[in-house]
Amino acid sequence: MNAPVSIEILKQHLIDPEICIRCNTCEETCPIDAITHDGTNYVVKPDVCNACMACVPPCPTGAIDNWRSVLKADAYSIDEQFTWDVLPEQGTMVPPPPVESQNAPSASSDPTDEADGIEVDTVRGAVVPPWSAARPYVNLYTHKNPTTATVVGNYRLTDEATQSDIHHIVIDFGSMPFPVLEGQSIGILPPGGTADGRTHHARQYSIASPRDGERPGYNNVSLTVKRVTQDYQGNATNGVCSNYLCDLKKGDVVNVIGPFGSTFLMPNHPNSHLLMICTGTGSAPMRAMTEYRRRRRLKGATGKLMLFFGARTKEELPYFGPLTNLPKDFIDTNLAFSRTPGEPKRYVQDAMGERAADVAQMLKDDNTYIYVCGLKGMEDGVLQSLQDIAGQHGLEWDALWQKLKREGRLHLETY
Ligand code: A2P
């Protein structure tokens, strides 16, 4: 008699190339390096992924949350996934495995649905929004189904004499619905395509304006865009989308997808405190939240706002003028400049250390929500600074860190 053939079924984790905005969040989040990418797609290694789900809630689009039941021997290889423009349909050859044998939770349209089951230890920031955050809309417009917006303003924010060319760009959706919340992002589809003939995929930008519009009551949003002139190695290169955006004129029409993001959101209860830490264009969501609070303050919001903002020099700090004009009793602003001639290098974490007693006061308050946005390199330094401050003021950081994450009170977005 023949021995019984063992048919192993894999619930294979896949990323939808039509929805993915290539933001790298999943690759950064994966605790076991199961996600990789080429110039086209982000893909999951079938032999490495253990379906721990750590990557699912942080994904701003939900593109990560796709699963196909396949025979293990026939799993889609990463080389095959790199060639995809669309996900394959679920084949009929393989029945879905019974629930108890599945190695991954079922696909979910709300990435936060699975948050309770995740080892939050593997993720550095919260994977859930603040309890009082408004419900965001996500993915209303996709690569296949973008909408358009018209440029109504494009202003350089940084001093003409500096190298950093950062723009404040306002786009208007006219009568197309495009509801956003502070902390969300949108995708811009630059025109043209890559050398191998593919259309460019979308580039993601944080929204810099509050939910009720850059101009209150208008259907518009603003973005903070830095013209990219170098790659990560410092070699000269022109960023495809940032140069396109920075060169736009009033009246130009852009293709937009999104909105994205369902966790990096602000609390809605008016007595909540915001501790915001950012560098450069990472100021976009902080500007959105601050402006929303400023408008709401007139209606009785009482929570404290404390901001740490780092830039090379005062001339290279986006929104320097408007920011420093905000009333001191509304926002406690701390600027850190790293390249002011004749002065020592100062980073946001140095400024936090100088204000340790006040930061500790905020850390002790269960109504404090922390937001970190900017350069990847700042994440370690900022978390270390929070740990040091907590330690100096009798707080047990590891326990506090877990609590902040569980309660949607520590949000990190670095790039
Ligand atoms: P630096 O002068 O060392 O580059 P950018 O202008 O490149 O967007 O950077 C914004 C600010 O963030 C700059 O002041 C930059 O300083 C600073 N920065 C760079 N690395 C870190 C880091 N690891 N932690 C905090 N700030 C940083």
From TrEMBL:
Origin, by domain of life?
Answer: Bacteria
Annotated signal sequence is none
Required cofactors, per record? Answer: FAD
Q: Which residues form the 4Fe-4S ferredoxin-type domain?
A: 11-40, 42-69
Q: Which residues bind NADP(+)?
A: 206, 226, 281, 338-339, 345, 374-375, 413
Q: Which InterPro entries match?
A: 4Fe4S_Fe-S-bd, 4Fe4S_Fe_S_CS, Benzoyl_CoA_Oase_BoxA, FAD-bd_FR_type, Flavoprot_Pyr_Nucl_cyt_Rdtase, FNR, FNR_nucleotide-bd, OxRdtase_FAD/NAD-bd
**What keywords tag this UniProt record?**
FAD, Flavoprotein, Iron, Iron-sulfur, Metal-binding, NADP, Oxidoreductase
PANTHER family under this entry? PTHR43314
What's the protein called, per UniProt? Benzoyl-CoA oxygenase component A
Q: Which gene encodes it?
A: boxA
